[in-house]
From TrEMBL, chain A:
Protein name, entry field: Phenylacetate-CoA oxygenase subunit PaaI
Signal peptide range in chain numbering: none
Coiled coil: none
Cellular component aspect of the GO annotation: cytosol
Gene that encodes it: paaI
One example of a Gene Ontology biological process annotation: phenylacetate catabolic process
One Pfam family recorded for the sequence: PaaA_PaaC
PANTHER family: 1,2-PHENYLACETYL-COA EPOXIDASE, SUBUNIT C, PHENYLACETIC ACID DEGRADATION PROTEIN PAA
Protein species of origin: Streptomyces sioyaensis
Organismal lineage: Bacteria, Bacillati, Actinomycetota, Actinomycetes, Kitasatosporales
UniProtKB/TrEMBL annotation, chain B:
Organism in which the protein naturally occurs: Streptomyces sioyaensis
Phylogenetic lineage: Bacteria, Bacillati, Actinomycetota, Actinomycetes, Kitasatosporales
All residue ranges annotated as the MIP18 family-like domain in the record: 13-83
SUPFAM superfamilies: Fe-S cluster assembly (FSCA) domain-like
Domain of life, per lineage: Bacteria
Every PaaD zinc beta ribbon domain range: 120-163
Gene3D superfamilies tied to this protein: Fe-S cluster assembly (FSCA)
UniProt name for this protein: Phenylacetate-CoA oxygenase subunit PaaJ
Length: 238, 165
């Protein structure tokens, strides 16, 4: 398989994997409106993934025929959906990151600029969706508050990796991006009457190696399901 | 900017008359997604199309419809190319397109103003059925990625809003 060395690959993998995770909500979301919302966000991400992966090679081969360790996505996006609060916490962390990163890339002369400029407007809606739900669940009932706090705490350790330099994106000011991200997340969580997590985000055995191809245990099973049809029926069409 | 010949202008108008596959009340020209038609060789035409949303599945149907219309007009080779930059915005929908959307029961997008920054979602929107401005947001995402779902508090009808992008 020919894979071009380009930062489009890790960013495309983020979009592809999160799209698949959100797609798993189809038929299971708490209300119909959310079913539709999560599917729409998944569709936006799939659109990003198709364009980005096509810059790195054949989109179908890359999505369906790579092994686990060849994927370069963040460990955050491969985390299982959990309860609705976990999915919202993952969305809040990731869409805030993606909006800041794409906003930066859109203003550069990188090959990623056209996609970043296009997608950042959609991602603003993804972030708003996650922000509104975080407020509603955090500042909601005792049960929803407990669950939302548990979710932001559980996923916190995967957020350090978001700001580790990506090969080919050396000009991105990662430290400044992190500060903006932290300020936004803090603002949302405080507004939602939640506590900003304080646990470690670097150096732990799990967090931070997705970009190098090391993934967490649930990822392999997710890939098996995602790739099964294509691998079992090569070349199948509708 | 490449000079447009009379034939190219004619083909652009023809491609622009193709109805949107998901919102058939609008043509592609009214939606503002056609970026140009260029005759690259005799009998060979390149059409530039921009997607409304990155993952919009309608883009493939649009390409197929454009190819069919231009084939029928005697152009044997038609290539539809997708361009992303500059990104499409709802400001590209024509005044006639907005009028048709409202008539179809979809609240048209408001002007987005200068590019960049999240879109304000709390301004009032007029119900396309009864004209009341007393409407509330039910969901930011509706039947397609480009729409939000709202309800009119006066006539109690739900309606789609083509959200600003």
């Amino acid at each position: 398989m020919n894979i071009t060395a380009t930062p489009a690959l890790p960013l495309g993998d983020d979009a592809l994997i999160l799209s698949h995770r959100l797609g798993e909500w189809a038929g299971h979301a708490p209300v119909l409106e959310e079913e539709v919302a999560l599917a729409n966000i998944a569709l936006d991400l799939l659109g990003q993934a198709r364009i980005l992966l096509s810059l790195a090679g054949d989109e179908d081969e890359l999505a369906y025929l790579r092994e686990e360790r060849q994927f370069r996505n963040l460990q955050l996006v491969e985390q299982p959906n959990g309860d609705f609060a976990h999915t919202i916490a993952r969305q809040l962390y990731f869409s805030t990151y993606q909006e800041l990163l794409f906003n930066h890339l859109a203003a550069t002369d990188s090959e990623l600029a056209p996609l970043a400029g296009k997608a950042v407007k959609e991602v603003a809606y993804h972030r708003d969706h996650a922000h509104q739900w975080t407020l509603r669940l955090g500042d909601g009932t005792d049960e929803s508050r407990t669950r939302m706090q548990r979710a932001v705490d559980a996923l916190w350790r995967y957020t350090g990796e978001l700001f580790e330099p990506v090969e080919g994106l050396e000009t991105v000011p990662w430290a400044a991006l992190h500060d903006s991200w932290a300020a936004r997340i803090t603002s949302t969580l405080e507004q939602a009457t939640l506590t900003v997590p304080e646990g470690p985000r670097h150096g732990a055995w799990t967090a931070g190696a997705g970009r190098q191809g090391l993934h967490t245990e649930p990822f392999g099973r997710m890939l098996a399901e995602m790739q099964h049809l294509h691998r079992s029926h090569p070349g199948a069409t509708w | 900017m490449v000079t447009t010949t009379a034939l190219e202008a004619e083909l652009l108008a023809l491609a622009g008359s193709v109805p949107d596959p998901e919102l058939p009340v609008l043509t592609l020209a009214e939606l503002g997604v056609l970026r140009g038609v260029q005759l690259t060789a005799p009998g060979r035409v390149e059409v530039l199309l921009t997607p409304t949303y990155t993952g919009c599945p309608a883009i493939e149907a649009m390409s197929a419809d454009i190819e069919r219309v231009l084939h029928d007009h005697g152009i044997p080779e038609v290539e539809v190319r997708t361009v992303l930059s500059p990104p499409w915005t709802t400001d590209a929908i024509t005044a006639e397109g907005r009028r048709k959307l409202a008539e179809f029961g979809i609240a048209p997008p408001r002007p987005t103003g200068p590019a960049g920054g999240p879109v304000a979602v709390d301004l009032t929107l007029r119900c396309p059925h009864c004209g009341s401005t007393d409407t509330t947001l039910l969901s930011r995402f509706s039947s397609t990625a480009c729409k939000a779902l709202r309800r009119c508090e006066s006539c109690r009808e739900p309606f789609d809003h083509f959200k600003e992008l």
